[in-house]
Please model this.
Amino acid sequence: MTLLPQTEEDDEAERIAAWLAARPHFLAERPALYRRLEPPRRVHGERLADHMAAMLAAERHALRDTARAARSGDSLATRVQGAVLALIGSHDPAETIALEWPTLLGLDSVALAAEGLPRRHIRPLRPGGLGRLLPPGRHLLLRDRGAAGLPDGAALHGETAPLVARDALLRLPGTGLLALGTREPALLPAQGSGRALDFLARAAATALASGGREAAAP
Model:
């Protein structure tokens, strides 16, 4: 009988099997991995039942996360609609955004920022500041506060900066951005929020452009 040479894949499989055998609790402590594993086909009894139960538990956990994200996204979309409605008929969109949007969006901080000289209700950014915060081609960025805080947090969020655990930076036409900040990250969900936030930014840009034209009109 001719023995086939052992392949690198076989060696790797043996190393993984030995590593798992030495750590019998590894998979039990990481139930999400079961969602990516196929159940053994020739194992019966309690071990197969445990494996299948772990897979079901991981799937339920993933579904809960998905449902939670969907609820957060729906809640954000509802709040965004209310904020956009407040812009309709506003004679000073920048003031509406700065003063009314924090309450309407349920956030701790809502601020307009732009490069150039300070303007009413618009925080100043240093030249090149927009490109540093939002790389070219990036229109939305969600950031979570680290140990050193959020970069330019004080410039964007003012006195509320120490409270902000997550913020969203939305690019506006030209050299401006809309900064949203919250102490509760769930209010700016990492999943499912892109469309609502993009709509919010486009509404703000449209209102600000219209407000500027009206102010310039004789």
Q: What stands out?
A: Residues 164 and 183 are 5 Å apart (CA to CA).
